[in-house]
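Page 42, continued from yesterday. The earlier attempt failed because a stray header line got pasted into the input along with the sequence. Redoing it now with the clean sequence only.
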Amino acid sequence: MKRPQDKAAHIAAKIVMTLTFLWSGFFYSVIPVITYINNEELSHISYRLMTAFPFLLVGLILCWVRLYIPQFPFCAVGLVIFIGPVAELIDLASKKDVIFKPSFELRYMPIIAFGIISLVLFLTRLWQIISTRIERRREYDNRPTESILEKRSDE
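This time it went through. Structure tokens are written below.
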């Protein structure tokens, strides 16, 4: 089946996905990776963020090449892996009396928009495929057929 042409809404969604990925998934993930990689107590945060990054990146790339169905599992797995250490970072930040600018929620929670957009693109593509199949089936079921009587008279 041919990949669909992008509409303006799809392009806008992919731009928002890219911006949220760059903000939360890349920029503010590199900082804890560098900060905690040598800290034995918190190095697991760095490793989990480094594990999530390739999944999110592959999902984003697949989105840009309009492979909306295969991109969703990558985005979902990356998001699940990413949320764990982020929740831990937010908990650590809330225990300290230091005020962070921007807050940890503002740093990391935009990645949720990344996941939601990924889901929406996946569902719209799935809906396009299903509706196309329904339309083809409807055309097949409603096409004119030969009469049995006409067929016998020709023989």
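Notes: Residues 30 and 49 are 8 Å apart (CA to CA).
Reminder to self: strip header lines before submitting.
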